[in-house]
Write a structure and sequence with these properties.
Blueprint lengths: L4 E8 L19 H11 L6 E4 L3 H14 L2 E4 L16 H8 L2 H7 L12 H17 L5 E6 L1 H12 L16 E9 L2 E10 L3
Helix pairs in contact: 5-6
Length: about 200
């Protein structure tokens, strides 16, 4: 008998209202353009269930899509974005003006150079991985759409690809970027593969 196959479509939220800025826990809704980006990204897709971050830029679209398709929508609290601490709500230019080289250091090695009072990357990775394992366990054989954040998706892809934690930000997802993961449940364990990557806009 063929091994059960689970497919996960990872979808980053669209453009939020308020323009580009650090928004980990800042809970902005989607802009009209952001809604349109996600509608285009999900057109023609077929899933058995939807899972999303609790933040508005993910949850509000996910709940509408699930209701339109007659699907369950589960809010996964641990899929929320990393907290950027004192950088929350600031633009990159504002962070550079106030903190100098700290921003470049963070992008190059987020483990060694976290934002001040921000969530340590190892803690962020651990909570996303815990939620990921829960999702794998209760989605066997299903097609699942996960609406989440660039950082959350980077953690999931890092895990699948076996990348060092310090290289996490080398996986960049634009607004409405997508990745498809395939999990084969075999007698030898779960085999994971990245099937498709569309970085979005």
């Amino acid at each position: 008998m063929d091994a059960p196959v689970t497919t996960f479509d990872l979808l980053r939220h669209g453009e939020p209202a308020g323009g580009p800025r650090f928004r980990g826990s800042v809970d902005d809704p989607l802009s009209p353009a952001g809604w349109a980006q996600l509608e285009t990204a999900t057109a023609g897709g077929a899933w058995d269930r939807v899972v999303c971050s609790p933040l508005r830029r993910c949850r509000e679209f996910a709940e509408v899509l699930a209701r339109q398709r007659g699907l369950e929508c589960r809010v996964e609290t641990d899929f929320r974005e990393i907290s950027f601490g004192l950088w929350e709500g600031l633009t990159s230019a504002q962070v550079e003006a106030a903190y100098g080289a700290a921003l470049a250091n963070f992008w190059n090695d987020p483990v060694a150079h976290p934002p001040p009072q921000g969530e340590p990357l190892a803690d962020f990775c651990a909570r996303v991985e815990t939620a990921w394992q829960r999702l794998i366990a209760d989605s066997r054989g299903q097609r699942v759409l996960v609406v989440a954040h660039g950082g959350t998706i980077a953690m999931l892809l890092r895990s699948v690809l076996g990348m060092p934690l310090s290289h996490s930000w080398r996986v960049r997802m634009g607004y409405a970027g997508q990745a498809r993961l395939r999990l084969d449940h075999t007698p030898h364990g779960v085999l994971m593969a990245l099937l498709r990557l569309d970085p979005g806009v």
